[in-house]
Specification:
- By secondary structure, this protein is α/β, with parallel strands linked by helices.
- The chain has seven helices and ten strands.
- The protein binds iron/sulfur cluster.
Length: 260
Amino acid sequence: MSTVIYPSPIYGPVHSRRLGLSLGVNLMPADGKVCTFDCIYCECGYNKDHTPHAKRPTREEVAQALEETLVKMQKDGQVPDVITFAGNGEPTGHPDFPDIIDDTLRIRDQYCPKAKVSVLSNSTFTNQPLVHAALMRVDNNILKLDTIDPDYIRRVDRPVSPHYDVKKIIEQLAAFSGHCIIQTMFLKGKGADGSDVDNTSDEYVQPWIRALIKIQPREVMIYTIDRETPDRELQKASHEELDRIAREVRANGFLCQVSY
Ligand code: SF4
């Protein structure tokens, strides 16, 4: 098993642990990764090892490919549970992301009105008004917040911009007024620099829960690594650890979904 670069602009459908039968939309080039983070657990690998040469798909290419795939799925008797924006990097970084969301909602309504539209994002563009507004229009606005510890973020999520400020990100997540799902990776083991990356202890969990209370998401998804990661020293958080964290999240009044 190795890290994976997804086809673009459409891949799957794949069965997702969290989302059901998911048709993927990848707004990044088909031959590499473009992300504002460079997570040491990224299933696509490190940014430096996957510099793309192709261009991102255009708005028109995305709409056409999505429609063609849904027509084919319809002929095969398949209906997606969800159309998921994910893939090789950060979807909201596509310059036409807001218009692509509008196209997708229209096409979804035409071919599979019961399917949800989900966006998996690392939250770094949520300060942009048009991105915020587009995320308010999707069914599942799934935003990453692995911890609120700046040093941990620097070592594990590794934002590309030196100006990443988790306090501002928390304010931006709270601005969704509950129309968001917070997604958090829990893991253990050693980072690329040899440091401990265990974020399952109270030192990390309690401040993160205080941030959830500020954000008031409609749901929290916690998970651990499931596929090969570029950093080979990482380990899964155990069932017991994830269950304990989920109990604490629920005790604070939030729905919490766990993927082991
Ligand atoms: S935010 Fe997602 S796509 Fe970007 S590096 Fe992290 S895991 Fe990979």
